[in-house]
Write a structure and sequence with these properties.
Blueprint: H1 3-34, H2 44-55, E1 66-69, H3 76-81, E2 85-88, H4 94-100, H5 110-121, E3 132-136, H6 140-151, E4 155-159, H7 168-189, H8 195-218, H9 228-238, H10 243-262, E5 274-279, H11 288-295, E6 299-304, H12 323-335, H13 347-359, E7 364-370, H14 374-390, E8 394-399, H15 406-426
């Protein structure tokens, strides 16, 4: 086989892969937009954004220096202040999970397999121009995937996290890691992080967080003004959209939702159970379980995942607007509030879940764990025990990206929803 023939076969394979991705994304978008009535008008921006990027191949940042990130723990403030554009590389395509399965162990996490499959096939829907990927040392599978990404030709920056966040040693370890990253990211983008630039970026992301917080607060209300499936779409858009455009679109949506609250607009049924969603992160287009929940006459009123609520929940708190103080404040914002199960102790996450159930007046919890995601699979036992102690019903679902599980999962979710309705009637 000649080099030209081999190259042509690679290109044909990539084109087929892109077509399959587009079909997968289109099917999910059709469900999100068309299978639910009375969507907020301001959501059209987000629906169109996903169609443009995932289905039509329009790149959102054609002229910017993009830096891939493999986890919510990478500080966006630092990358943007250095003139870069952070793009989350975690991926939800089933077609990419199949590619990842060709070179990863069978019991690997679906999210990691899909993300590496997308990088291997070089069919990233956001851009073809990402050269550097920041990979925090979170779960073991992401740690080991760094070597695979290097073999694929990517430059990988390993960002070190401590295994314990409660100790002062762990917090100082992370601060040093973020300080070093602040110096090194300038070498990637060619622009040094300055005091003025970082202050402006903290303010910009703070504005985005305020808009997001307005939406999250409205989810606690009864009647419920909008559905959880739209909240997941909004948050997933933050992974790759322009920060200013995303913020303006989210503020516009929040204004519309505020008016819905005034008008006592209700998107839920009279007996629709209110659900808190947690566990492995739903990343577009793999919104399979959240969509099934809301297609089963339940509503997701809160979530505790790194692809939604946890992403923009806590703001940077700066005492002094000096460079080192700001960098340390950014570091603290990402570590202190983190409830990821990678840490050896994770009482914060259980407390957070119970708080969300209470503050959102939720009827139950649905916990999703991807098959092969060891930390979430292991932690579900302690979470289930805590929920039982508090009298909070919980459904545990282990799944992957395969669409073949749809019928079985739908049956289990519908049965759980019916049990919550029956419980509500008894009470």
């Amino acid at each position: 086989m000649t080099i030209e023939t081999e190259q042509r076969e690679i290109e044909d394979s990539q084109q087929r892969h892109v077509r399959h991705q587009g079909m997968e994304a289109m099917q999910v978008l059709d469900v999100i937009e068309k299978d639910f009535s009375e969507n907020p008008k301001a959501m059209q921006y987000f629906y169109d954004l996903f169609r443009d990027v995932y289905c039509n191949g329009i790149k959102p940042h054609p002229d910017k220096e993009m830096i891939g990130t493999m986890c919510v723990q990478v500080p966006d403030e630092i990358i943007i202040a250095a003139g870069g554009t952070p793009v989350r590389m975690c991926n939800g395509f089933y077609t990419d999970e199949e590619v990842g399965a060709e070179f990863m162990p069978a019991k690997s996490c679906s999210l990691v397999k899909a993300s590496l499959g997308m990088l291997k096939s070089k069919t990233n829907p956001y851009s073809t121009g990402i050269k550097t990927i920041v990979n925090p040392t979170t779960c073991d599978q992401k740690k080991k995937s760094a070597g695979m990404m290097r073999e694929m030709g990517y430059k990988v920056y390993d960002m070190e996290l401590p295994p314990v966040k409660e100790s002062e040693i762990g917090r100082e370890y992370w601060r040093r890691s973020v300080r070093l990253f602040t110096k090194e990211v300038g070498k990637i983008t060619g622009k040094k992080v300055t005091k003025k630039g970082l202050k402006q970026t903290i303010s910009k992301i703070g504005r985005a967080q305020n808009a997001y917080h307005r939406l999250n607060e409205s989810r606690k209300l009864t009647p419920l003004p909008f559905l959880g499936k739209d909240m997941f779409v909004v948050t997933n858009a933050f992974f790759f959209d322009d920060l200013d455009r995303w913020t303006e679109a989210t503020e516009k949506l929040a204004d519309e939702i505020d008016q819905r609250v005034i008008d006592k607009y209700n998107t839920a049924g009279k007996r629709s159970p209110r659900i808190v969603f947690t566990g492995s992160p739903p990343v577009f287009p793999n919104l399979k379980v959240p969509l099934m929940i809301e297609q089963s006459d339940a509503v997701i009123v809160a979530d505790e995942t790194c692809s939604s609520n946890r992403l923009l929940n806590d703001m940077v708190s700066v005492d002094e607007w000096f460079m080192y103080d700001m960098v340390d404040a950014v570091a603290d914002r990402y570590l202190k509030s983190c409830t990821c199960p990678i840490f050896t102790m994770n009482d914060d996450r259980i407390r957070r879940l119970i708080e969300l159930v209470r503050s959102s007046n939720a009827d139950g919890v649905i916990y999703q764990a991807f098959a092969g995601c060891g930390v979430y699979e292991m932690e579900q036992r302690s979470v289930a025990k805590a929920m039982e102690k508090e009298g909070i019903p919980m459904l545990y679902i282990e799944t992957d990206y395969s669409p073949s599980q749809g019928g079985q999962l739908s049956t289990r979710i519908e049965a759980f929803v019916e049990s919550l309705k029956a419980r509500s009637r008894r009470q």
